[in-house]
């Protein structure tokens, strides 16, 4: 029984370490790249709106640092 417990503990450690390594090595850099790409897209979107003379919606695209996400409420279709 003690051997089984030891095997399960070691397996748990290996899985958890692998998951953490994947998050740090793959997902975090990808997240940073997506943030940069979204910022470029936002800038381009606002530039195009300005070029065609339209005003951005009241809730323009804003990055909320405290939430760590994007406010995409402006994407909702107006009725």
Helical/strand content category: mainly alpha
The tally of domains stands at 1
Spatial strand sequence of the major β-sheet:
1-2
Oligomerization status of the protein chains: single chain
The mean pLDDT is: 80
How would a textbook summarize the main sheet? 2 strands, antiparallel
> Based on CA inertia axes, which overall geometry fits?
rod-shaped
Total beta-strand segments: 2
Order of helices and strands: HEE
Please provide a written account of the structure:
With 79 residues, this protein is mostly helical. The chain has one helix at residues 2-52, and strands at 62-64, 69-71. The protein has a two-stranded antiparallel ribbon with strand order 1-2.
What's a concise summary of this model?
This protein is mainly alpha-helical.
How are the SSEs ordered, and which strands pair?
Blueprint: H1 2-52, E1 62-64, E2 69-71
Antiparallel strand pairs: 1-2
